[in-house]
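From the methods appendix. Each design record in this collection lists the tokenized structure first, followed by the designed amino acid sequence. Records were kept in a plain field format so they could be parsed without special tools. The example shown here is representative of the layout used throughout.

RECORD:
FOLD TOKENS (178 positions):
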């Protein structure tokens, strides 16, 4: 049976941007909650780290992306347009994604998760800490496959041109959404 081609968005529907941002913000709140429970200084360091990661994405990805200054699935392209000049689309496609590139992003979830578990052991059971500590796991295995697999990458114009991240996660099958 012939599969229908997914719709490619020149601009994503607002509801997808909203859902993607709620998921992302919940992840940041969960991480920050744990790190602030540890100490207000670790909480501040965590937030600075998150902002640093965001700006790295704007600078090294979004400004070269098809959606620059337009509505991508995550709304980041608009923010990139405020802080960075438009880059070159060729830079986006030239890049290669590897696990090494994902380490800084993963640390943003793994460190609060480890701290959360340590807090539960050292300070005793605390429901909100438990929820915040397991949120990244739910995110990785349940929410992200839906967010990336169904709502964003599948309909992405940049992905239909070429996206190293999509290529990496689809294990080299193809980077093109046809
Ligand atoms: S294909 Fe996915 S990861 Fe790549 S630019 Fe589009 S939304 Fe982002």
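DESIGN:
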């Amino acid at each position: 049976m012939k599969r229908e081609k997914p719709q490619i968005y020149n601009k994503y529907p607002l509801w997808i941007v909203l859902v993607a941002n709620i998921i992302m913000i919940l992840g940041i709140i969960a991480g920050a909650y744990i790190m602030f429970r540890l100490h207000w200084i670790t909480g501040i360091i965590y937030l600075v780290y998150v902002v640093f990661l965001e700006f790295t994405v704007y600078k090294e990805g979004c400004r070269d992306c098809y959606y620059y200054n337009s509505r991508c699935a995550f709304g980041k392209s608009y923010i990139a347009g405020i802080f960075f000049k438009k880059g070159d689309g060729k830079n986006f496609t030239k890049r290669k994604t590897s696990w090494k590139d994902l380490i800084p992003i993963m640390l943003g979830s793994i460190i609060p998760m480890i701290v959360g578990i340590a807090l539960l052991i050292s300070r005793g059971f605390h429901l909100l800490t438990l929820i915040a500590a397991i949120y990244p796991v739910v995110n990785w295995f349940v929410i992200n496959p839906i967010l990336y697999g169904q709502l964003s990458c599948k309909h992405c114009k940049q992905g239909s041109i070429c996206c190293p991240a999509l290529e990496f996660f689809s294990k080299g099958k193809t980077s093109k959404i046809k």
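APPENDIX NOTE: The chain has one domain: 14-169.
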